[in-house]
Amino acid sequence: MNTGFVDFFNPSVTGLTGRTVLQIIPSLGNGGTDRIVLAVAAALANAGVRSMVACEDGSGVGELQARGGIWIPFPAKTKNPIAMALNVQKLTRLIRGEKVDLVHAHSRAPAWVALGACHRTGQPFVTTFHNSHSLGGGAKSIYNSVMTRSNAVVVHSEFTASLISRQFPTVSQRTHIIEAGVDFQDFSPGVVSAERVSHLRATWGVSKHEHVVLLPSRFLTMKAAKPVLEAARILVARGLSRTKFVLVGDGLPRSQNARDIDSFIQKHSLQATVIRAPFCKDLAASFMSAALIITADVEPDAFGLTAIEAQAVGTPPVVGSNCAAAEAILSTPDVPAQERTGWRVNLDEPLALAEVILEALSMGASAKDSLSSRARTHVTKRCGIERMTAEVLSLYAGLLR
Known about the structure:
alpha/beta; Rossmann fold; 14 helices; globular
Protein backbone atom coordinates (compact mmCIF):
# COMPACT_ATOMS: atom_id res chain seq x y z
CA MET A 1 0.00 0.00 0.00
CA ASN A 2 1.13 3.50 -0.74
CA THR A 3 0.73 6.60 1.41
CA GLY A 4 2.65 9.82 1.60
CA PHE A 5 2.69 13.59 1.68
CA VAL A 6 2.63 15.60 -1.54
CA ASP A 7 3.88 19.16 -1.87
CA PHE A 8 0.57 20.57 -3.04
CA PHE A 9 1.83 24.13 -2.74
CA ASN A 10 3.91 23.54 -5.88
CA PRO A 11 1.62 23.39 -8.95
CA SER A 12 4.39 21.92 -11.11
CA VAL A 13 4.45 18.76 -8.98
CA THR A 14 1.80 17.17 -11.20
CA GLY A 15 3.46 17.56 -14.61
CA LEU A 16 0.02 17.13 -16.15
CA THR A 17 -0.37 20.40 -18.04
CA GLY A 18 -1.78 19.81 -21.52
CA ARG A 19 -3.00 16.31 -20.72
CA THR A 20 -6.60 15.08 -20.90
CA VAL A 21 -8.06 13.13 -17.97
CA LEU A 22 -11.51 11.53 -18.01
CA GLN A 23 -13.41 10.56 -14.86
CA ILE A 24 -16.46 8.32 -15.23
CA ILE A 25 -19.30 8.02 -12.70
CA PRO A 26 -22.96 6.96 -13.08
CA SER A 27 -24.30 10.48 -12.45
CA LEU A 28 -23.05 13.67 -10.80
CA GLY A 29 -25.09 14.83 -7.82
CA ASN A 30 -24.41 16.06 -4.29
CA GLY A 31 -23.20 12.94 -2.48
CA GLY A 32 -19.77 12.38 -1.00
CA THR A 33 -18.42 10.59 -4.07
CA ASP A 34 -19.78 13.34 -6.32
CA ARG A 35 -18.06 16.04 -4.26
CA ILE A 36 -14.75 14.20 -4.53
CA VAL A 37 -15.13 13.86 -8.31
CA LEU A 38 -15.92 17.58 -8.57
CA ALA A 39 -12.91 18.51 -6.44
CA VAL A 40 -10.54 16.41 -8.57
CA ALA A 41 -12.07 17.80 -11.76
CA ALA A 42 -11.55 21.38 -10.56
CA ALA A 43 -7.96 20.66 -9.47
CA LEU A 44 -7.20 19.18 -12.90
CA ALA A 45 -8.63 22.24 -14.66
CA ASN A 46 -6.59 24.55 -12.41
CA ALA A 47 -3.46 22.57 -13.32
CA GLY A 48 -4.00 23.16 -17.04
CA VAL A 49 -5.50 19.75 -17.74
CA ARG A 50 -8.53 19.08 -19.96
CA SER A 51 -10.75 17.78 -17.20
CA MET A 52 -13.64 15.64 -18.44
CA VAL A 53 -16.38 13.79 -16.56
CA ALA A 54 -18.51 11.21 -18.40
CA CYS A 55 -21.84 10.57 -16.69
CA GLU A 56 -25.56 10.96 -16.93
CA ASP A 57 -27.08 14.29 -15.98
CA GLY A 58 -27.25 15.37 -12.35
CA SER A 59 -27.41 18.37 -10.07
CA GLY A 60 -23.60 18.62 -9.97
CA VAL A 61 -23.10 19.10 -13.71
CA GLY A 62 -23.53 22.88 -13.52
CA GLU A 63 -20.91 23.14 -10.79
CA LEU A 64 -18.54 20.95 -12.80
CA GLN A 65 -18.78 23.29 -15.77
CA ALA A 66 -18.48 26.39 -13.58
CA ARG A 67 -15.23 25.03 -12.14
CA GLY A 68 -13.63 24.40 -15.51
CA GLY A 69 -14.63 20.80 -16.13
CA ILE A 70 -16.14 19.38 -19.30
CA TRP A 71 -19.30 17.30 -19.06
CA ILE A 72 -19.55 14.35 -21.45
CA PRO A 73 -23.13 12.99 -21.51
CA PHE A 74 -22.73 9.23 -21.20
CA PRO A 75 -25.16 6.41 -20.19
CA ALA A 76 -22.92 5.30 -17.33
CA LYS A 77 -25.69 4.11 -14.98
CA THR A 78 -26.62 1.04 -16.98
CA LYS A 79 -25.83 -2.42 -15.67
CA ASN A 80 -27.36 -4.18 -18.67
CA PRO A 81 -24.62 -6.40 -20.15
CA ILE A 82 -25.56 -5.61 -23.76
CA ALA A 83 -25.70 -1.87 -23.08
CA MET A 84 -22.39 -2.06 -21.23
CA ALA A 85 -20.77 -3.81 -24.22
CA LEU A 86 -22.02 -1.02 -26.46
CA ASN A 87 -20.69 1.49 -23.95
CA VAL A 88 -17.22 -0.05 -24.25
CA GLN A 89 -17.27 0.77 -27.96
CA LYS A 90 -18.64 4.26 -27.28
CA LEU A 91 -16.02 5.00 -24.62
CA THR A 92 -13.23 3.64 -26.85
CA ARG A 93 -14.24 6.10 -29.57
CA LEU A 94 -14.38 8.90 -27.01
CA ILE A 95 -10.91 8.14 -25.65
CA ARG A 96 -9.41 8.07 -29.11
CA GLY A 97 -11.35 11.03 -30.44
CA GLU A 98 -10.61 13.30 -27.46
CA LYS A 99 -7.06 11.97 -27.03
CA VAL A 100 -7.74 11.02 -23.40
CA ASP A 101 -4.53 10.20 -21.54
CA LEU A 102 -6.00 8.53 -18.43
CA VAL A 103 -9.37 7.21 -17.24
CA HIS A 104 -10.55 7.15 -13.62
CA ALA A 105 -13.69 5.14 -12.74
CA HIS A 106 -15.66 5.74 -9.53
CA SER A 107 -18.25 2.94 -9.68
CA ARG A 108 -18.39 -0.70 -10.70
CA ALA A 109 -20.61 -0.69 -13.81
CA PRO A 110 -18.74 2.18 -15.52
CA ALA A 111 -15.47 0.62 -14.31
CA TRP A 112 -16.18 -2.50 -16.40
CA VAL A 113 -16.81 -0.24 -19.39
CA ALA A 114 -13.64 1.74 -18.74
CA LEU A 115 -11.60 -1.45 -18.27
CA GLY A 116 -12.71 -2.73 -21.66
CA ALA A 117 -12.05 0.59 -23.38
CA CYS A 118 -8.63 1.09 -21.79
CA HIS A 119 -7.66 -2.48 -22.72
CA ARG A 120 -8.32 -1.51 -26.34
CA THR A 121 -6.61 1.88 -26.24
CA GLY A 122 -3.76 1.20 -23.81
CA GLN A 123 -4.52 4.19 -21.56
CA PRO A 124 -3.77 4.00 -17.82
CA PHE A 125 -6.82 3.10 -15.76
CA VAL A 126 -7.55 4.15 -12.15
CA THR A 127 -10.38 3.04 -9.85
CA THR A 128 -11.60 4.30 -6.49
CA PHE A 129 -13.43 2.28 -3.84
CA HIS A 130 -15.99 4.76 -2.51
CA ASN A 131 -18.22 2.14 -0.90
CA SER A 132 -17.02 -0.80 1.14
CA HIS A 133 -20.16 -2.74 0.14
CA SER A 134 -18.35 -3.18 -3.20
CA LEU A 135 -16.41 -5.91 -1.39
CA GLY A 136 -19.21 -8.47 -1.23
CA GLY A 137 -18.39 -12.13 -1.58
CA GLY A 138 -19.91 -15.02 -3.49
CA ALA A 139 -21.16 -14.44 -7.01
CA LYS A 140 -20.71 -10.70 -6.60
CA SER A 141 -17.00 -11.09 -6.04
CA ILE A 142 -16.22 -11.35 -9.76
CA TYR A 143 -18.35 -8.30 -10.56
CA ASN A 144 -16.77 -6.34 -7.72
CA SER A 145 -13.25 -7.36 -8.73
CA VAL A 146 -13.23 -4.82 -11.56
CA MET A 147 -12.30 -2.20 -8.99
CA THR A 148 -9.02 -4.08 -8.44
CA ARG A 149 -8.18 -4.59 -12.13
CA SER A 150 -6.81 -1.10 -12.66
CA ASN A 151 -3.27 0.23 -12.79
CA ALA A 152 -3.91 1.98 -9.47
CA VAL A 153 -6.60 1.49 -6.83
CA VAL A 154 -7.48 4.50 -4.67
CA VAL A 155 -9.05 4.09 -1.23
CA HIS A 156 -9.77 6.77 1.34
CA SER A 157 -9.05 4.85 4.53
CA GLU A 158 -6.96 2.14 6.15
CA PHE A 159 -10.27 0.42 6.90
CA THR A 160 -11.12 -0.02 3.22
CA ALA A 161 -7.54 -0.91 2.29
CA SER A 162 -7.62 -3.69 4.86
CA LEU A 163 -10.90 -5.07 3.49
CA ILE A 164 -9.50 -5.07 -0.05
CA SER A 165 -6.24 -6.74 0.93
CA ARG A 166 -8.11 -9.58 2.62
CA GLN A 167 -10.34 -10.28 -0.36
CA PHE A 168 -7.88 -9.40 -3.13
CA PRO A 169 -4.36 -9.94 -1.70
CA THR A 170 -2.52 -9.30 -4.96
CA VAL A 171 -3.77 -5.72 -5.24
CA SER A 172 -1.92 -4.35 -2.20
CA GLN A 173 1.04 -3.00 -4.16
CA ARG A 174 -1.32 -1.02 -6.41
CA THR A 175 -3.44 0.35 -3.57
CA HIS A 176 -3.03 4.04 -2.71
CA ILE A 177 -4.53 5.42 0.50
CA ILE A 178 -5.58 9.01 -0.11
CA GLU A 179 -7.69 10.42 2.70
CA ALA A 180 -10.90 12.20 1.68
CA GLY A 181 -10.66 15.97 1.85
CA VAL A 182 -13.03 18.80 2.67
CA ASP A 183 -13.24 22.24 1.07
CA PHE A 184 -12.93 24.69 3.95
CA GLN A 185 -14.32 27.47 1.76
CA ASP A 186 -17.65 25.65 2.05
CA PHE A 187 -17.32 23.88 5.38
CA SER A 188 -16.28 26.46 7.95
CA PRO A 189 -18.28 28.25 10.67
CA GLY A 190 -17.21 31.62 9.28
CA VAL A 191 -18.83 31.07 5.89
CA VAL A 192 -22.18 29.70 7.07
CA SER A 193 -24.50 32.58 7.94
CA ALA A 194 -26.87 32.54 10.89
CA GLU A 195 -29.70 33.10 8.39
CA ARG A 196 -28.94 29.84 6.59
CA VAL A 197 -28.98 27.94 9.86
CA SER A 198 -32.16 29.54 11.21
CA HIS A 199 -33.96 29.05 7.88
CA LEU A 200 -33.09 25.36 7.85
CA ARG A 201 -34.17 24.82 11.45
CA ALA A 202 -37.44 26.58 10.71
CA THR A 203 -37.95 24.34 7.68
CA TRP A 204 -37.53 21.32 9.93
CA GLY A 205 -39.90 22.76 12.52
CA VAL A 206 -37.23 23.08 15.23
CA SER A 207 -37.50 25.95 17.70
CA LYS A 208 -34.56 28.11 18.79
CA HIS A 209 -34.21 26.51 22.22
CA GLU A 210 -34.18 22.89 20.98
CA HIS A 211 -31.15 20.67 20.36
CA VAL A 212 -30.91 18.81 17.04
CA VAL A 213 -29.49 15.30 16.76
CA LEU A 214 -29.00 14.88 13.02
CA LEU A 215 -28.83 11.72 10.94
CA PRO A 216 -27.74 12.91 7.46
CA SER A 217 -27.95 10.52 4.53
CA ARG A 218 -28.40 10.70 0.79
CA PHE A 219 -31.06 7.98 0.80
CA LEU A 220 -32.81 7.35 4.10
CA THR A 221 -33.40 3.68 4.95
CA MET A 222 -34.92 1.98 7.96
CA LYS A 223 -31.69 0.05 8.51
CA ALA A 224 -29.73 3.30 8.83
CA ALA A 225 -32.43 5.04 10.86
CA LYS A 226 -33.18 2.24 13.33
CA PRO A 227 -30.20 2.81 15.71
CA VAL A 228 -31.17 6.48 16.04
CA LEU A 229 -34.87 5.67 16.44
CA GLU A 230 -34.12 3.13 19.15
CA ALA A 231 -31.87 5.60 20.97
CA ALA A 232 -34.57 8.29 20.73
CA ARG A 233 -37.13 5.86 22.16
CA ILE A 234 -34.85 5.07 25.12
CA LEU A 235 -34.08 8.73 25.85
CA VAL A 236 -37.68 9.92 25.57
CA ALA A 237 -38.69 7.18 28.01
CA ARG A 238 -36.07 8.62 30.39
CA GLY A 239 -37.60 12.08 30.09
CA LEU A 240 -35.39 13.73 27.44
CA SER A 241 -36.90 17.00 26.26
CA ARG A 242 -35.99 20.06 24.18
CA THR A 243 -34.40 17.77 21.57
CA LYS A 244 -35.38 16.89 18.03
CA PHE A 245 -34.00 13.89 16.14
CA VAL A 246 -33.92 14.91 12.47
CA LEU A 247 -33.58 12.08 9.94
CA VAL A 248 -32.55 13.56 6.61
CA GLY A 249 -32.50 11.73 3.30
CA ASP A 250 -34.33 11.18 0.05
CA GLY A 251 -36.77 8.36 -0.49
CA LEU A 252 -40.23 7.90 -1.92
CA PRO A 253 -42.85 9.07 0.64
CA ARG A 254 -44.75 5.79 0.23
CA SER A 255 -41.72 3.51 0.05
CA GLN A 256 -41.32 0.58 2.43
CA ASN A 257 -38.48 2.41 4.21
CA ALA A 258 -40.66 5.47 4.78
CA ARG A 259 -43.55 3.32 5.99
CA ASP A 260 -41.29 1.41 8.38
CA ILE A 261 -39.80 4.59 9.82
CA ASP A 262 -43.19 6.27 10.22
CA SER A 263 -44.63 3.11 11.77
CA PHE A 264 -41.85 3.02 14.38
CA ILE A 265 -42.38 6.71 15.18
CA GLN A 266 -46.12 6.20 15.67
CA LYS A 267 -45.78 2.93 17.60
CA HIS A 268 -43.47 4.52 20.16
CA SER A 269 -45.22 7.94 20.25
CA LEU A 270 -42.18 9.81 18.92
CA GLN A 271 -44.10 12.23 16.67
CA ALA A 272 -43.08 15.20 18.82
CA THR A 273 -39.42 14.15 18.88
CA VAL A 274 -38.47 12.62 15.52
CA ILE A 275 -38.66 14.50 12.21
CA ARG A 276 -38.20 12.89 8.80
CA ALA A 277 -36.94 15.45 6.25
CA PRO A 278 -35.81 15.33 2.60
CA PHE A 279 -32.15 15.42 1.61
CA CYS A 280 -30.60 18.83 2.29
CA LYS A 281 -28.20 20.25 -0.28
CA ASP A 282 -26.90 22.84 2.18
CA LEU A 283 -24.84 20.31 4.10
CA ALA A 284 -22.70 22.84 5.94
CA ALA A 285 -25.76 24.66 7.32
CA SER A 286 -27.43 21.36 8.26
CA PHE A 287 -24.35 20.29 10.20
CA MET A 288 -24.12 23.66 11.96
CA SER A 289 -27.82 23.41 12.85
CA ALA A 290 -27.12 20.33 14.93
CA ALA A 291 -25.62 19.70 18.35
CA LEU A 292 -24.57 16.23 17.23
CA ILE A 293 -24.21 14.33 13.94
CA ILE A 294 -24.74 10.58 13.74
CA THR A 295 -23.34 8.63 10.79
CA ALA A 296 -25.28 5.37 10.73
CA ASP A 297 -24.61 3.98 7.27
CA VAL A 298 -26.36 0.87 6.01
CA GLU A 299 -22.97 -0.58 5.07
CA PRO A 300 -19.59 0.19 6.65
CA ASP A 301 -18.56 3.64 5.42
CA ALA A 302 -15.58 3.62 3.07
CA PHE A 303 -14.21 7.12 3.64
CA GLY A 304 -15.96 9.00 6.46
CA LEU A 305 -16.53 12.28 4.61
CA THR A 306 -19.62 13.18 6.64
CA ALA A 307 -17.66 12.91 9.88
CA ILE A 308 -14.87 15.05 8.41
CA GLU A 309 -17.23 17.76 7.17
CA ALA A 310 -19.13 17.81 10.47
CA GLN A 311 -15.91 18.41 12.40
CA ALA A 312 -14.91 21.12 9.93
CA VAL A 313 -17.89 23.22 11.02
CA GLY A 314 -17.34 22.32 14.67
CA THR A 315 -20.15 19.81 15.19
CA PRO A 316 -19.03 16.57 16.85
CA PRO A 317 -19.93 13.32 15.08
CA VAL A 318 -20.92 9.94 16.49
CA VAL A 319 -19.62 7.18 14.23
CA GLY A 320 -19.77 3.41 14.11
CA SER A 321 -16.83 1.59 15.64
CA ASN A 322 -16.36 -0.60 12.54
CA CYS A 323 -16.06 1.84 9.65
CA ALA A 324 -13.71 4.30 7.98
CA ALA A 325 -15.33 7.21 9.81
CA ALA A 326 -13.80 5.83 13.00
CA GLU A 327 -10.42 6.87 11.57
CA ALA A 328 -11.66 10.40 10.89
CA ILE A 329 -12.16 11.37 14.55
CA LEU A 330 -10.20 11.39 17.79
CA SER A 331 -11.94 9.31 20.44
CA THR A 332 -11.32 7.10 23.42
CA PRO A 333 -9.50 4.79 23.95
CA ASP A 334 -6.99 6.26 21.45
CA VAL A 335 -6.98 9.63 23.21
CA PRO A 336 -8.16 10.82 26.64
CA ALA A 337 -11.80 11.94 26.79
CA GLN A 338 -10.74 15.58 27.08
CA GLU A 339 -8.97 15.34 23.70
CA ARG A 340 -11.79 13.72 21.73
CA THR A 341 -13.35 15.28 18.63
CA GLY A 342 -16.28 12.84 18.50
CA TRP A 343 -17.53 9.49 19.73
CA ARG A 344 -17.22 5.91 18.49
CA VAL A 345 -19.97 3.49 19.40
CA ASN A 346 -21.32 0.12 18.36
CA LEU A 347 -24.45 1.18 16.48
CA ASP A 348 -25.98 -2.26 17.06
CA GLU A 349 -26.28 -1.32 20.75
CA PRO A 350 -29.06 1.31 21.07
CA LEU A 351 -28.44 1.77 24.80
CA ALA A 352 -24.77 2.62 24.19
CA LEU A 353 -25.77 5.11 21.48
CA ALA A 354 -28.36 6.66 23.78
CA GLU A 355 -25.73 7.12 26.51
CA VAL A 356 -23.37 8.85 24.06
CA ILE A 357 -26.12 11.18 22.83
CA LEU A 358 -27.03 12.08 26.41
CA GLU A 359 -23.38 12.72 27.27
CA ALA A 360 -22.95 15.02 24.27
CA LEU A 361 -26.15 16.97 24.94
CA SER A 362 -25.27 17.37 28.63
CA MET A 363 -21.93 19.11 28.01
CA GLY A 364 -21.53 22.63 29.30
CA ALA A 365 -20.91 25.61 27.02
CA SER A 366 -17.17 25.72 27.68
CA ALA A 367 -16.71 22.00 27.06
CA LYS A 368 -18.74 22.26 23.83
CA ASP A 369 -16.63 25.16 22.58
CA SER A 370 -13.41 23.30 23.35
CA LEU A 371 -14.65 20.18 21.55
CA SER A 372 -15.68 22.20 18.49
CA SER A 373 -12.32 23.93 18.36
CA ARG A 374 -10.43 20.62 18.63
CA ALA A 375 -12.58 19.10 15.89
CA ARG A 376 -11.90 21.97 13.48
CA THR A 377 -8.18 21.93 14.24
CA HIS A 378 -8.04 18.15 13.76
CA VAL A 379 -9.53 18.12 10.27
CA THR A 380 -7.84 21.36 9.17
CA LYS A 381 -4.44 19.75 9.74
CA ARG A 382 -5.10 16.51 7.89
CA CYS A 383 -8.19 16.70 5.64
CA GLY A 384 -7.86 19.72 3.35
CA ILE A 385 -9.19 19.29 -0.18
CA GLU A 386 -5.89 20.60 -1.58
CA ARG A 387 -3.95 17.75 -0.03
CA MET A 388 -6.37 15.13 -1.35
CA THR A 389 -6.51 16.44 -4.91
CA ALA A 390 -2.74 16.96 -5.05
CA GLU A 391 -2.16 13.33 -4.09
CA VAL A 392 -4.63 12.18 -6.76
CA LEU A 393 -2.97 14.36 -9.42
CA SER A 394 0.46 13.14 -8.34
CA LEU A 395 -0.77 9.57 -8.80
CA TYR A 396 -2.00 10.43 -12.31
CA ALA A 397 1.33 12.00 -13.17
CA GLY A 398 3.23 8.96 -12.01
CA LEU A 399 1.12 6.69 -14.24
CA LEU A 400 1.69 8.94 -17.25
CA ARG A 401 5.48 9.20 -16.96
